[in-house]
Amino acid sequence: MKTRRDFIKISTVGVGAAAISYKALGSKGFGLFESKLEGPVSDEDLTPYPTYCEVCFWKCAAWAYVDKKGRIRKVLGNKNDPHCNGRLCPRGTGGVGMTYDEDRLKTPLIRETRNDGTQYFREASWDEALNKVADKMKEVKEKHGPEAFGLFNHGTPGGQFHHLLRAYGSESNAEPAFANCRGPRMSAYFSTFGAYVGSPESTDIRDTKCLVLIGSHIGENMHNSQVQEMSEAIDNGATIITVDPRFSTAAAHSSFWLPIKPATDIALIMAWIHVLIYEELFDKDFVERYTFGFDQLKEHVKNMTPEWAYGITDIEPEQIRRTAKEMAGAAPAVVIHPGRHLVWYGDDTQRARAMAILSALLGAWGKRGSLYFAEGIKIPEYPQPHYPETKWGWRDWNGDKYPLATMGITTELLKASIPRLNYEHQVKAWLIAGTNLPLAMPDKPLFKEAAAAVEFIAVMDTMPMEVTGYADVVFPEATYLERYDVIRSAANREPNIALRMPAIEPKYDSKPGWWIAKQLGERLGLHDYFNYDDYAEVIDWQLKKLGTSLEEMKKIGVKKFPRKSGPLYMGEGEDFEFNTNTGKIELYSVDFADHGFDPIPKYTKHPEPPANFYRLIYGRAPMHTFSRTINNPNLSDLMSENSVWVNPKVADLWGLKKGQEVWLKNQDGAITTFPVKIRVTERIRWDSVYMVHGFGHANKKLSRAFGRGAADTEMITNVMVDPIMGGTGMRGNFITFLKEDPALNRKEAKA
Ligand SMILES: Nc1nc2c(c(=O)[nH]1)N[C@H]1C(S)=C(S)[C@@H](COP(=O)(O)OP(=O)(O)OC[C@H]3O[C@@H](n4cnc5c(=O)[nH]c(N)nc54)[C@H](O)[C@@H]3O)O[C@H]1N2
Ligand SMILES: Nc1nc2c(c(=O)[nH]1)N[C@H]1C(S)=C(S)[C@@H](COP(=O)(O)OP(=O)(O)OC[C@H]3O[C@@H](n4cnc5c(=O)[nH]c(N)nc54)[C@H](O)[C@@H]3O)O[C@H]1N2
Ligand code: SF4
Ligand SMILES: [Mo]
To answer: Which residue ranges have their beta carbon within 6 Å of ligand 1?
Structure first.
């Protein structure tokens, strides 16, 4: 039986024909810049507009150059911006493809059901679509209270809807950036240092003598200034130590590559800590002055020798000792990179704690070449009433189950939406803004059950992504190059802000997120929270408070301010109070002990792949961001599908050839919708396979992305939940190969 909300592959009468003829032009019609279509243009004929990139969360500031006909010809980095230093990554340069993608959402859409029960989307006016969502928000408020309206948000578009939700009276929101990404390090670094590492992370890579990458694959993970600083550090002779079961791009540039057995990193880090302590290589003065719990730590790691770790990690004891000595020799100028996507095995907060403790023993905190003290600009709050009090929010869906979580947990929001699970507080409807949940969330069956259970879903996106197929109403947002948005403010070495303004008018019938949120707000009687006609007024008001103006920012894009919080680094022997329970860096975490968690990290063994199965690991490719860029005409030109990396030993055993198409099947019997090509390479351990995340799109309306490669997410049905902060550990899944089309087999079996 079909559920009330069947997945609809967006197709609307009217735009379909146009889309096909446009597609006939072929993706090659779109080069890196549109100028390929229209011939060269001289810089004098171009007008630059300031923006910051939305292709990933590094938010590099840039200039969009527009020609006399009103077309964006190129996007270049802003030289004064510390996120990019004037250079964008390939995704940022090709980001303009998001604006000129002919598959974009073009008008609001409303779900309809025909007499025979089948469902489809019909084009609607903005008024109708907005009224429908606002009416539903009113209804939910009356029937269940505003708290029952949930929000999945990500990136700047999500921020506009978050404001709307708070004004309406709900705090039931969650974003993948926490539970599916960097949540473990937030909880871990906060409990250790009483501070977060921020985004961009405050890693002083450019001045480091030793950079330790534990699974961080910088170079494929293209976080811009980090990649630039890493290459500077290499030129300056820094030692790079990369721990990765795969020979990553970073590993290729490293002095030491430790091809660790997956899921065993905590053992390696604890053995490093053992060597530092028992060979007296740690920073004694720093530890004595600033840390709490050294004696307990020393006792705890007594038997965690390199020999012990060797049996677990496959890393030779000699390598463990040597790399520990390298770090000690470079200390305190060592960056133990805190990682970003940390949700691997469910003990991820503990792994991040181990990394934080390792940094502390090296005195590598607040010192040149380690982690610096970042400073940001607080954007003045535009006048508005306080947000209404809420009766419950993301913390209370089912008791305070994850007390050390600092943001809403996506999987918990799904569970709170399923009546069968009997959560204390039930969520009845969703807004979704800027996240493609079907590809970003592990455990697809859970997502589908929750999506079918809620009464209503409204999605704001720029593309007909999979998530839009679950919506009752779809709002087409203007792309980042077509809109004003919040002022970018992220802590850095120098405090700074960046402006995003429209370079061109929104194409089609798309609208900026701020406008959509305001229109809903007005319909809900929340005018006082949206007291402006144009978001430019808000920005100008805020900028003036900061001693600049919209007029000035339009000319410069980025503005830097003098630091007020003091120097980048700690002074020698300076008194320093950390924002923790003990006022010290907690090698032994009082918070963790209070909540019944191990106060010092322990290694726990995780399940191994069954016979003929291999651990699925995944990561990034330099030219794509998750699922959002796969259809981008510029970027799909650079990489149009993913492959599955297989060790030659495994390829031999299975008789797999380079380029051969296979389907993957996981331990729970899930099979990939699409086949994926084999890449035979020594760069991956024999017990694992590797895939780039984001491919395997199932919506036909994504003309370049549909059916290209396979989705790692489909293979991630086992979620290893982090008991400390609710992270969705995704690397406890194992796959095997199907050499023949499983659909064919199914048909034959029936015949
Ligand atoms: N299997 C697997 N799952 C993962 C990961 C993985 O590696 N593998 N990585 C995890 C991590 S680290 C993260 S951070 C998350 C990322 O999760 P998401 O942020 O959900 O990732 P995307 O797939 O890029 O989806 C972004 C969505 O926003 C839309 N979008 C882009 N720009 C705009 C805009 O300007 N306005 C609006 N309204 N929408 C826009 C895109 O079209 C797309 O639908 O995924 C997590 N999930
Ligand atoms: N080009 C590009 N860059 C991006 C993004 C993007 O989509 N595209 N997304 C951005 C975002 S939001 C995030 S969160 C970051 C994520 O980037 P990172 O935090 O750097 O990535 P992870 O996904 O944690 O790690 C991937 C690496 O971990 C290795 N690995 C797998 N299992 C293990 C293990 O058990 N132990 C160890 N030591 N290593 C293991 C994999 O082989 C792979 O090289 O990337 C950011 N940068
Ligand atoms: S790192 Fe690349 S994709 Fe990310 S914001 Fe910067 S230019 Fe854009
Ligand atoms: Mo992420």
So the answer is: 54, 154, 157, 176-177, 180-181, 341, 433-436, 439-440, 460-463, 465, 467, 477, 479-480, 513, 618, 625-628, 693, 712-713, 716, 730
